[in-house]
Automatic annotation (TrEMBL):
Topology of the protein relative to the lipid bilayer: Multi-pass membrane protein
Entry protein name: Binding-protein-dependent transport systems inner membrane component
Record-level GO cellular component terms: plasma membrane
Organism encoding this protein: Thermobrachium celere DSM 8682
Spans through the membrane: 12-34, 68-92, 112-136, 156-179, 200-228, 260-282
InterPro entries named in the record: MetI-like (IPR000515), MetI-like_sf (IPR035906), Sugar_ABC_transporter (IPR052730)
Localization of this protein: Cell membrane; Membrane
Length: 293
């Protein structure tokens, strides 16, 4: 009995904190759903209704925001995966992996907050930023205003750049560790049989790290779809990213607009759950076909 008590004692110590955290989380989720159905007694809304769902689904701005959020999330996650995997393979196949100081530099962006990433992108890529000044000094443009707008633009270039700067090192971090642990027997055999480095990567290493890459892609996609900081700081005034639209409704002076924000948050939550389900399904398919390591 004493031995069992020692095993569960650390968890008992954590129990008050866990109850507090889960309590806040559950309260927040319940509150979101209640307010999305129009139940907000603090401002006199005491009747449950589907009115706010109907109005949001009839609002074209909601679908513009949804389309924009899907676009920036997909493009930034895809570019992050491509660059991150290529960088991981570069570390694996060259002398760079022996240079510990150089190898660890890329990890800096992983720990940098997203607000700082947005500030760096603005400082470098805005029309008054570092890059436009260089182009102006070199005579490529006559005025800094002529520099192609890469922040606050409808294509979301600045938002995508910030997410890629944050996401690519994360993919490198999780992919490199997997590649490093894999046996190099297959790679050496393929090279001896005449395969080039690209063929070794694409036909041997890539299938082995595909589950990890898929996980990383879904993590990045889900985060960028639900986060508002970077789109709020670097995104266009229209269309707004979905989380930014929810934030604007939430901060509205008219508190009766709050349910609109909660409806949008419900859709974001449901979409995140769908992505989680797709990841589980994809992982099962990969294992079923023997691609998993």
């Amino acid at each position: 009995m004493n031995k069992k008590y020692k095993l569960i004692f650390p968890y008992l110590l954590l129990l008050p904190v866990l109850l507090f955290i889960f309590g806040i989380f559950i309260f927040g989720i319940v509150n979101i759903f209640l307010q999305s159905f129009g139940y907000f007694p603090a401002v006199g809304l005491k009747l449950f209704s589907l009115r706010y769902y109907k109005e949001i689904l009839k609002d074209p701005n909601f679908f513009y925001s949804l389309k924009f959020s899907l676009y920036i999330s997909f493009i930034s996650s895809l570019l992050s995966v491509i660059l991150g995997v290529l960088l991981a393979y570069l570390f694996l196949s060259t002398y760079l992996n022996d240079k510990a100081k150089f190898y660890n530099i890329y990890k800096i962006s992983v720990i940098v907050p997203h607000t700082i990433a947005a500030f760096l992108v603005f400082t470098i890529f805005s029309q008054s930023g570092f890059l436009s000044r260089i182009f102006f000094r070199l005579g490529f443009i006559n005025n800094m205003v002529e520099f192609y707008p890469m922040t606050f633009d409808t294509k979301g270039i600045g938002v995508i750049l910030a997410y890629v700067w944050k996401g690519a090192p994360f993919i490198t971090l999780i992919t490199y560790d997997i590649l490093k642990k894999l046996s190099d027997t297959y790679s050496k055999v393929a090279l001896n049989l005449g395969a080039n480095n690209f063929q070794v990567f694409w036909y041997i290493l890539f299938p082995l790290v595909l589950p990890t890459i898929s996980l990383g892609f879904i993590i990045l996609f889900t985060f960028s779809f639900g986060a508002y900081e970077i789109p709020y700081l670097l995104g266009p005034s229209k269309p707004k990213a979905l989380p930014v639209l929810a934030y604007i409704y939430y901060k509205s002076v008219n508190l009766k607009d709050r349910p609109y924000s909660m409806v949008i948050n419900v859709f974001i939550i449901l979409f995140s759950l769908v992505l989680a389900f797709l990841y589980i399904l994809l992982n099962k398919i990969i294992k079923k076909h023997g691609i998993d390591r």
